[in-house]
Structures are given as C-alpha cells and as structure tokens.
C-alpha cells in the first residue's frame, strides 16, 4: 500500500490541489481585471499605446482615448472572456467626432472567443480538480495517512518548477508562448496580430501583459498553496497520546519488604 500511496495517491492529491488553487487564483484576479492598472503603470502602456495607435490600419483615433478608457476597455474584455465571450462585439470606444465604434475587428473577436472557450474548459477542469482534491483529502483523513515531509514536498515542487523553467528558458519564452497558441487554438483562426493591425494587442502590449499576469498568478498561487498545505498538515496530523506511567512492580516490592522484615536489626 505504501508504494502505491507514494506513487499515485499523493501525486493525485497535490496535482489536483495545485490546479484547483490555480483556478481560484485566476478567478480572484479576474474580479479585479488582473490588476491591469498596475501593469499599465509598470509596463508604461500609455506610451506604447500612444506610439502604435496612430499606426493602426483598421481603426482610427484610438490615440485620443484616455487612460481611463484604456482601463475600461481591458476590463470589458476581461469580463467578456470570463462570461463565455458574451459582450465582445459590444466593446466600443469614442472617435474624434464623438461617435462610437467597435473596438475590435472580426479576427480579434474570433480570437477572444477562442480564449473564452479555453477559459471555460479551465473552469470545468478546475472544478473536477476541486472535487478530486476534497475526495483524496477525505480518504487521507479517514485512513489516517500522514502527509509526506515538507522537505520532500518542497524538493519535488521546486524541482518540478526548476526543470520547467529551464526548459522554457532553453526553448525561449516567446517560442513557448507561440507554440502553446498553435496547439490550443484552431488552425483557421488568427491568433497573432501585429500592433499595427490590432488595438487589442496594442492595449495589452502583448505578450508583456501576460508575463505580468503570470507573475501575479504564481505569487498568489504560492501563498494559497502554502496556506492550504499548512491546513492539510494540521488536519492530518496524528494527535499525540500521552503514554501512561509505567506500572510499579508490586511483586518485587513486596518480596523486598518481606526480606527486610525477616532480618530485624539488633535490639529489636
């Protein structure tokens, strides 16, 4: 049972825990639009938009949009992809003449609908992992399993991250980013956009904004993972039972007393 537990049970528990918590982190960050205003300042997106918006071959006057407009537009995109893509065609900005126009052209809308579909799959996968995590945790509790030592878990966790990071660095983060897009999105759908062809890409300074969001996710996931590990360790820790004091050897004591009485001291 122990080899099976080490090779199958604990990996299933920790993998499902990590994916479940990743979903939680994603959902929480989505509620604040992935801290876009902070990323906007950090990545100097205002200067980036001012440089490339006038060069756009499909849309006019976006360079006139304010910082608040940029934040609103990203928020509306975030809300739409979180809501199965509903509302993507309704995202608009104001032109110089006061009229409003659609923020994105058709290829951008199709791409973001694909993104929304992937997010839907992520939510379904995360929900399954939440259920699997709770089931395995309940089994561990009722079977009185003890968690592996924190040292072993951290070594495995850090080792996996290190190997993954080295692979990404060796291949190149941009190459990995593009490869994932090729694997995930339909072949006939455009997913790469030059800044001059996409206000969506210009607004996000892609892929820079995704690196910023990834850092936020990793930091939040690390916090939640550590807290949940402490909670599991507390739940699965076996209570210490105080051993009763050793019983006195009454037979030996009585024999010793009898011998003492059998040889009285002089004068008695």
Describe the structure.
Helix 1 (2-31) crosses helix 9 (208-236). This protein is elongated. The chain has one domain (2-239). The longest helix is centred in the middle third of the chain and has 37 residues, at 106-142. A hairpin with a 5-residue loop joins strand 1 (92-94) and strand 2 (100-102). The chain has ten helices and two strands; from the N terminus they run H-H-H-H-E-E-H-H-H-H-H-H. With 268 residues, the protein is an all-alpha fold.
- Mean of all residue-level pLDDT scores: 88
Given the structure, what is the number of helices?
10
Q: How would you describe the shape? A: elongated
First-residue to last-residue Cα separation:
70 Å
Oligomer: single chain
The strand order across the widest sheet is 1-2
**What proportion strand?**
under 5%
Q: List low-confidence stretches.
A: none
Radius of gyration: 31 Å
Q: In sequence order, what are the helices and strands, one letter per element?
A: HHHHEEHHHHHH
Domains, number: 1
Number of strands: 2
Q: Into which percent range does the helicity of residues fall?
A: 55-70%
Helix/sheet category: mainly alpha
Largest sheet, if any? 2 strands, antiparallel
